[in-house]
Every structure is written in structure tokens, then in C-alpha cells.
Amino acid sequence: MSRQTQAIIHADAIIHNFKLLQASAPHSRSMAVIKADAYGHGAVNVARLLRDICQRFAVAIIEEAIALREAGITAPIVVLEGPHQQRECALAKASDCIMVAHHQSQLDWLMALPEGQRPHIWLKVDSGMHRLGFAIDEVEPILTSYQALVTSETVLVTHLACADDLENPFTQQQLDAFAALKNRIDLPVSIANSPATLAWPQSQANWNRLGVAVFGSGPDVPERAQLKPAMTLRSSVMAVRTITPGEYVGYGQNWQAQRTSKIATVAIGYADGYPRHCPNGTPVAINGQIAPLAGRVSMDMITVDVTDIGEVRPGDRVELWGEQVNIDTVAHHAGTIGYELMTRVSQRVPRIVRHR
After folding, report:
1. Spatial distance between the Cα atoms of 303 and 94, rounded to a whole number of angstroms
2. Active site (annotated) includes residue 262
3. Residue 29 pairs with which residues in a beta bridge?
4. CA angle, corner 39, sides to 37 and 44, nearest 5?
5. pTM
6. pLDDT tens sequence across 257-276
7. Domain for residue 222, yes or no?
8. Which of 91, 240, 256, 317 has its CA 20 to 30 Å from the CA of residue 156?
9. Are 250 and 194 within one domain?
10. What residue numbers bound the domain in which 279 lies?
């Protein structure tokens, strides 16, 4: 390929991270959440890498599950948003998917199917996030009314709103509210996402749902340091020019040279998923040295001030995030989170799976 803009997916890092997370919760079973094309890393690739160590996977919608089935992935798949339409219920059964039910209409759709055509369900409980799920005081009546849907695979599942904020007491409030329900109902439970698995061990239950941490991001806890970045977004230098003091770079004259400056143009932009709102000063690694973004991000290119990092030539390797530039550092500069950067890498950027 001519353009050297690529997302290198580190197979060893994904396997290492999943094993590390499993080991941190030895009394739980863990599934890999590979929705949104495995947070931009390629869901089929990731499922194949983890198929021997991960007992099941989770996705957001049924279409994501079907794509995995068509690629030969046979492990059970939990569909976290459940059915959006009635026809998805029978499709879930045929595809060996477990549907998360969070609304009574979904339960009614499932009940309308003949008994042998119903998929297994998880029941979503709203413990305080107020996004999806049955209120805690609704759960026991729901289980009584829809007892025919309860199977050996049924799990009570909830989601934590602030697990990545270690100082926020709301996580413990959610855990306490959910524990009171669990004490009254004899069903397995799933609480912990990636941040909770690492930072709130009391949330580890029958099933943990491991998402972003599998790909090397997580809350600021000691275990975080052992995670390895699973994606290196890289490109190359297209051109280098010298400009004089007072000259501007990029759209809108967003950056002005205060001295004689060398500017490298790099073959990546917001059409590739690099955030347009990254400000001047966002770190970029060129030839292993850190240099600051200079000028507004364009659709296909960025410009970097390389005055202080020695000789830079067209064709030199550039890392936007990965092992040299932490994705969460870039996200902080862009005013967002690493999750968004991962998932926004566009499809015109080839994913290259590398085994070290």
C-alpha cells in the first residue's frame, strides 16, 4: 500500500491484557466485550485471538453477533442492547445469542415465540445509571410474571455509571442497591465492566464484562500500568518545510511561528479518525521523539512542529498513539476519552494484526 497510515493491532497485547484481567478476578468468569468492531480493533480478529481463553463474547446489537457467526466464531454471544425489533428474538436463538432484556416489550416479544425458539436472556437492572433496565422494585414482579423465560443461563446484569472515578461514592451506592436485590433473588449476576474489574473488586461477580481494558486503557490504578496498548496508530511524514517567524500553518491560521520553524506534514487526518479538535501541542512521536501538533487537523493531514527533534525527512515513521504516545494522553488533549479515539479510527485505515 502506498499510504503508510495504518492501525497496528498487537495480538500479544490483547491476549496479555485479557489474561491479566482474568487473573485479577479469579472467582469470576470473564467475557470480552467486542462491540463497535472491538473498539476499533476488529471484532473478528479479536474473537479469533481470544477464542481459546474467553468463554463468551458480548456485543451491542444482533448484527455484530451475526458477523461473528459468519466468520466462524462459535462461543456464546451476549447482545447487550437486546432486541430492537421482535424479529430479532428468533434470530438470536438461531444464532446462539443471549439477549439482554431491559424493557417489558422485549419480554413480551420473547414470550410470543414457541418455547423452543426462545433465546436465553439476561435481565438488565437499573441500579442508578438511569439509562436502561428495570427499576430494582420491578425485578421480582417481572421474574414472577415472566418465569417461563428464566433458564439456567439467566443472569441479572447492571451497569456502573462512575466506576472510572475512584473518588465518587455513587459506585458504592449502586453496588449496595444491587446487593440488596441479589440477596433476595437466587440468580447469577454481572456487574463489573473494565474499570470496575480493576478498581472495585467488590463488583466482581459471576460474570465480568471486559471491554476497553482488553485494549490497554483503564482507570488510574496500579494494575493499569501492566496493561499493554493493543493499537498503534501510525503514519509517515509527507513533506518538511521551513517557515519564518510570523508565518502561519493550517486552516484558519490556527498556529503562528514564533521562531524559524520546521514543519512536518503527516498523512493522517480526521477522515482517518484522528480527532479534528486536537489542539496545538498535542504530542506526536516522529522517529521515536515527541513533537507537538502545530495547526488545525485537516481531513487527510496534520502538521507537526519538528524544530526541536533533529532531522526529519519524508517517509519517516510517525506514531499518533500506541507505545510511545499514550492514547489517553491524546484523548485528554482532545477533550474526550480513549474509547472514542479507538472506535473512531475509520475503515480506510487498514488494521494490521501483528504477533511479536
Report:
1. 51
2. no
3. 207
4. 35
5. 0.96
6. 999 999 999 999 999 999 99
7. no
8. 91
9. no
10. 231-354
